[in-house]
């Protein structure tokens, strides 16, 4: 894992409401690894550990983070609450829930009141991967080397798409 501890220079925080969110949120971590972007992953629950959430939201910028990726499922209040606590950009990932397949997560994250923005990604692993890519794109605005790596990553993805389908 890139980053991995306080004072390591991680610019991206990946936070999630539960250990059970990690298989989804790991997709953000994996793409950041591929792009050489340091991150730190933590469990921060809006409901079960509200004091931890408050402290993280207030201290994130001072810890050196520049972008927060926040994933949660069900009554997914973590991304919006963090948006209320920090001026850093917050990218919300709706984790696919068992009861409502993530529709609850999506609606809990997306409909923020004007003035408290939370970027909202797709439900599940695709959203987590894209949150990682968006975090990298935000950081790349001030990092020419990262911008080059991101463009190369995107170009490689395009090059990997065959022009014609084949029987497997
Ligand atoms: C949310 O409740 C978490 O983000 C998770 O997606 C969901 C279920 O959590 P667990 O009961 O699996 O810990 O707070």
UniProtKB/TrEMBL annotation:
<feature type="binding site">
    <location>
        <position position="48"/>
    </location>
    <ligand>
        <name>substrate</name>
    </ligand>
</feature>
<dbReference type="InterPro" id="IPR033747">
    <property type="entry name" value="PurE_ClassI"/>
</dbReference>
<comment type="pathway">
    <text>Purine metabolism; IMP biosynthesis via de novo pathway; 5-amino-1-(5-phospho-D-ribosyl)imidazole-4-carboxylate from 5-amino-1-(5-phospho-D-ribosyl)imidazole (N5-CAIR route): step 2/2.</text>
</comment>
<dbReference type="InterPro" id="IPR000031">
    <property type="entry name" value="PurE_dom"/>
</dbReference>
<keyword id="KW-0456">Lyase</keyword>
<dbReference type="GO" id="GO:0004638">
    <property type="term" value="F:phosphoribosylaminoimidazole carboxylase activity"/>
</dbReference>
<comment type="function">
    <text>Catalyzes the conversion of N5-carboxyaminoimidazole ribonucleotide (N5-CAIR) to 4-carboxy-5-aminoimidazole ribonucleotide (CAIR).</text>
</comment>
<dbReference type="Pfam" id="PF00731">
    <property type="entry name" value="AIRC"/>
</dbReference>
<comment type="similarity">
    <text>Belongs to the AIR carboxylase family. Class I subfamily.</text>
</comment>
<keyword id="KW-0413">Isomerase</keyword>
<keyword id="KW-0658">Purine biosynthesis</keyword>
<feature type="binding site">
    <location>
        <position position="21"/>
    </location>
    <ligand>
        <name>substrate</name>
    </ligand>
</feature>
<feature type="domain" description="PurE">
    <location>
        <begin position="10"/>
        <end position="161"/>
    </location>
</feature>
<feature type="binding site">
    <location>
        <position position="18"/>
    </location>
    <ligand>
        <name>substrate</name>
    </ligand>
</feature>
<dbReference type="GO" id="GO:0034023">
    <property type="term" value="F:5-(carboxyamino)imidazole ribonucleotide mutase activity"/>
</dbReference>
<protein>
    <recommendedName>
        <fullName>N5-carboxyaminoimidazole ribonucleotide mutase</fullName>
        <ecNumber>5.4.99.18</ecNumber>
    </recommendedName>
</protein>
<dbReference type="InterPro" id="IPR024694">
    <property type="entry name" value="PurE_prokaryotes"/>
</dbReference>
């Amino acid at each position: 894992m890139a980053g991995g501890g306080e004072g390591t220079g991680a610019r991206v925080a990946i936070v999630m409401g539960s250990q059970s969110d990690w298989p989804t949120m790991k997709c953000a971590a994996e793409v950041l690894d591929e792009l050489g972007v340091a991150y730190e992953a933590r469990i921060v629950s809006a409901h079960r550990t509200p004091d931890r959430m408050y402290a993280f939201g207030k201290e994130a910028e001072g810890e050196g983070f520049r972008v927060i990726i926040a994933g949660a499922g069900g009554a997914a209040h973590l991304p919006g609450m963090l948006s209320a606590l920090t001026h850093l950009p917050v990218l919300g990932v709706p984790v696919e829930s068992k009861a409502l397949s993530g529709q609850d997560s999506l609606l809990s994250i997306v409909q923020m009141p004007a003035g408290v923005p939370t970027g909202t990604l797709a439900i599940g692993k695709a959203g987590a991967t894209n949150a990682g890519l968006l975090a990298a794109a935000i950081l790349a605005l001030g990092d020419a080397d990262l911008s080059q790596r991101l463009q190369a990553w995107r170009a490689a993805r395009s090059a990997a798409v065959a022009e014609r389908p084949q029987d497997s």
